[in-house]
TrEMBL record:
Protein name (database record): Type II signal peptidase
Active site (catalytic residues): 49, 86, 250
Family designation: Belongs to the peptidase S8 family.
Any GO molecular function: serine-type endopeptidase activity
Domain Peptidase S8/S53: 40-288
Tree of life domain: Bacteria
GO biological process entries: proteolysis
InterPro entries named in the record: Peptidase_S8/S53_dom, Peptidase_S8/S53_dom_sf, Peptidase_S8/S53_subtilisin, Peptidase_S8_Asp-AS, Peptidase_S8_His-AS, Peptidase_S8_Ser-AS, Peptidase_S8_subtilisin-rel, Subtilisin_Carlsberg-like
Annotated signal sequence range: none
One Pfam entry name: Peptidase_S8
Keywords in alphabetical order: Hydrolase, Protease, Serine protease
Amino acid sequence: MNKIHLIPYRIEEITTVAPQVPEGVRMIKAPEVWERAGSGKNNVIAILDTGCQSDHPDLEDRIIAGRNFTPDYNHDEANFEDNNGHGTHVAGTAAAALREDSIAGVAPEAQLLILKVLDAEGSGDYARIIEGIHHAIDWMGPNGEKTTVISMSLGGPDDVPELHEAIKRAVNEGIPVVCAAGNEGDNSPQTDELGYPGAYKEVIQVGAVDFNRKIASFSNTNDEIDLVAPGVNIHSAYLEGKYASLSGTSMATPHVSGALALIKNIAEKEFARKLTEAELYAQLVRRTVPLGYPKTAEGNGLLELDALERLEYLLAEPNASLDLDNEGGV
């Protein structure tokens, strides 16, 4: 059986500084809902990746727990440090703390469960991924915390039944599973490119767009794409306390994972009860805006967290105009 790997990605730039609110976070309108959503507080995002720099200034206060499932560090389960860079970047996009002289993730008060399932080369056995998923489902924090969402920016060519079963178990337990679509796209929505676990119907499969709302040429297309998010030149945390701009559907995925923490807080307050995975997915889809591409490329459209509020404004103000093709909003 083939190994499972990081979704290929591009490192555009490594710097010692980054915008406090990265453009991707702004593009999905996360700051507009932070107050209503408590910035994602009381949610735990499980990041299954290459680990995370645990003392990165923007992440150290967000990490609630972690575990290493790889042979790295002599199989030390307690050492989930990132020796690749990818995992730290993904974690930062999902939930970097919004502090002075730091960057913000999509849900800056959510917590991170770091599960290192890929080694320094970005490779791992399917068994490790499966074990990591089950760990995320069963994990309980020191104060009874449970995993809110599982985020996986990885993929492989094989449809492995045990992997599929693990994902179905997570969904049945009420945990959305967010996966990168993959970067093998040929810039044509007429041809399918499939990677697993992204292609499973139970997961939320995320494609990538650039800041001009154009589908990234590398983004996989298939009939299981659920939505798209920023995935080109994405600023986030990186190794050695630095920052980097990376491109790939790997970068689009944590935008959606962080967004689900925000949506959960907003929607469960409105409904005054815990929502099922299907209900959380429905609330996510309601916060998308079609871009005009085939569904195989964009699914339900671009994630915009304030889309419902903008629509409500339009309905309440008959003379108002709602420009969905303009980043400026209403």
